[in-house]
Amino acid sequence: MSADSSHLPLLRPFVGGRFIETAQRRILRAPYDQRELAQVCECGRSELESALSAAESALSVTRALTTDKRAAILSTVAKSLATHKDRLALAICDDAGKPIADAQAEVSRAILCFELAAAEALTTSSEGQVLAMDLAPLGYGRTGIVRRFPIGPIAAVSPFNFPLNLAVHKLAPAMAAGCPIVLKPASQTPTVALLLAEIIDQAGWPSGALSVVPASRAAADLLVTDDRCKLLTFTGSAQVGWDMKARAGKKKVTLELGGNAAVILDETVSERDLDAMVPKLVYGAYSYSGQKCISIQRVYVVSSSGDSLYQSLCERLRAAVMQVQAGDPRDPSVLVGPMIDEQNARRVESWVAEAESLGARKLCGGARQGTFVPPTLLAQAPSHAKVVCEEVFGPVCHVDKVPSFEAALSAVNDSRFGLQAALFTHDLGHALKAYEELAVGAVVLNEAPSFRIDHMPYGGVKDSGLGREGIRSAIVDMTEPRLLITGVL
C-alpha cells in the first residue's frame, strides 16, 4: 500500500447489515492506466463467519416476507439503480476497464433483472400445484398441494467481467425467493457490488439477509464448504468452478463457466449477407476485449462449393477489425479497452504466438502494450492450438473453412466447452439440425452467439457449467417444492 493512500476512498465490506472496516487492506488500481482508485477493506474468516451467521439468522425473516413485500423491495431497487445509473457505469468502467458504452448497457440490464425478479416474485417463488390423489383407493377424498419454499442461505461468487449484472443474477432471484445471500465479488471489481449493497439495504431488504464480502479466495472458501449455505452459485473459470463443486458437500451447486463460442456460416449464406453479418461478428468477438464467456472465438465457413465466401469474409472481417477503436474505456467511441490485468494480456499474447508457430495466419493484430492486446484475427489454426480448443477470453477471433455443414457441426462440438453457438443460414433444415446436434446450452440463429437477454435460461454443458441462470431458472433452484396431502378425520 502506498504511503499516501489515506486520500483514497475506503471500500468497506457490508457484513450482516452494516458496513465495517477491517485491518486487511489493499489498493485497487484501474486496468487502463494503473491509477489508484480506492482502498479495499478485505474480509477474513471472522467476517465470513459473521456474514454466514447473520444469513442463517435472517432466514426466518426473509421466508416470512409476503410476496407483495418482496416484489416491492425488488421494484424499489430497480428504480434506485436507474437513479444511480451514471455512478454505477463509471465504477464498472474504472474497476473492470470496460468501455463506458458497454458499462452503461450493463446497468440497464441490471435494472431489467430487478424488474423481472419483481414480476417473478409474484409467480415463480409462490406458484403452486394441485395434485389429484384419487389415482388409487388410498387417495380417495384427499388432495395434494405443492408449493415452493426458500431453500435457505445462498453463497454467491461473481466474476470481474460483468461485476454488476452477474452479481444481480444471483442477488435478485435470491431476494425474489426469500433467501438470505452472501456475495463475494471479484477482487478487481468490488466497487459496484458494494454500491449495490447500499441500494438494496436502503430499499428495505431485512438486516443481515445480505452481505457483500471482498475477500481472498482462501478466506471465501468458507462459502464453498460451510453447510449453512444451501446453494452455491458461481460464475467464473471452469477449473475453479469444478473444484468448488467437488468440495461443496451436500449443498446444491450451479456453475456458469467458460466457453469458446463458435459461429457457422453455411453454404446458403451469400456475400451480400456479409453486410449485416460482419458488424455482428466484430462486436461479438471484440467488445470488452473479448472478456465474455460467449465472446465469438471460432468462425467456420462451409466451403463445399468453393472458397469465395471464406475469402470474402476474411477480407471483410480484416478491414472491419482494423477500424475497431481501442483505448481509454471512458471514451464512448472505444470498443476495445484494456484486459483485466497484464498477466492475462501476456497469456493471450503467448497463445497467439503459439497459433502462428503451428501454422496459423495472422490477418491483423499487433504487439501487446501492457494490458492492451490489439484486436487480432487469425485464420486456419490447427484444432489443437489453444486459440481454438481453450477459452481465449481476449480480443482474438479465429476463422477457418470446412468442407460441409456436417463437418462444421463436428468442429463446433469438438470442444470441451458447450455454452452458446450460432448459425447463419437461410435453410430451416440446417437450423433444426444444428439445434438437435450441437452440444451447447443455446443455439442462436442469424445472430452472434454473444446474444443474451436476461430472462433466458442461460448456461451450458460439458465444461461450460451446471444448471441455468436467468431470473426464473435461478428462483426455481433457490426454492424447493413441499407437498401437503389433505385428509378428513
Record keyword descriptors for this entry:
single chain, 489 residues, alpha/beta, 7-stranded mixed β-sheet, 6-stranded mixed β-sheet, 23 strands, 38% helix, globular
Structure notes:
It contains 15 helices and 23 strands. It is 38% helix and 20% strand. The protein has 489 residues and is an alpha/beta fold. The protein has helices at 45-62, 67-83, 85-96, 100-121, 165-177, 191-202, 217-225, 238-247, 274-286, 308-321, 342-357, 386-389, 405-413, 428-437, 471-477; strands at residues 10-11, 14-15, 18-19, 25-29, 36-41, 128-132, 143-150, 154-157, 181-184, 210-212, 231-235, 252-256, 261-265, 296-302, 361-364, 376-379, 396-402, 417-418, 420-424, 442-445, 461-462, 465-466, 479-485. A seven-stranded mixed beta sheet has the order 15-16-17-14-13-19-20, sandwiched between helices. The model has no long low-confidence stretch (mean pLDDT 96). The longest helix has 22 residues, at 100-121.
